[in-house]
């Protein structure tokens, strides 16, 4: 999955196919709001079911996202709405749950791998800091979810 750079997504697919000999597919879409996230994830699994016999061996959530208004919204008296907060929670924990829940029944014999890439700034390895408050909460939720699913 990728956000908007179709050229880079196609180049990555070509490189992965050339190096691995595997078939590689990409889906563009927006994971930062409910409707677009649900539509994008549905397209992921249309490919899984149609091209990959409905089987998933591994799922890696490695989303990176920088909201254009992140630096204006902090948990220091600068929150006047939840637009930025909701976008981070949509792309991180909500997308992670939605994709994982679709992957689990497609993992043969309940065996598969699930990986979530986060950042030291969202756990106890680093002190909380303004500027990472929105993405940090979303990724910290993903870390908790990984432990739950494990």
From TrEMBL:
Stored Gene3D superfamilies: NAD(P)-binding Rossmann-like Domain
InterPro entries, per database record: NAD(P)-bd_dom_sf
The protein, known as: Protochlorophyllide reductase
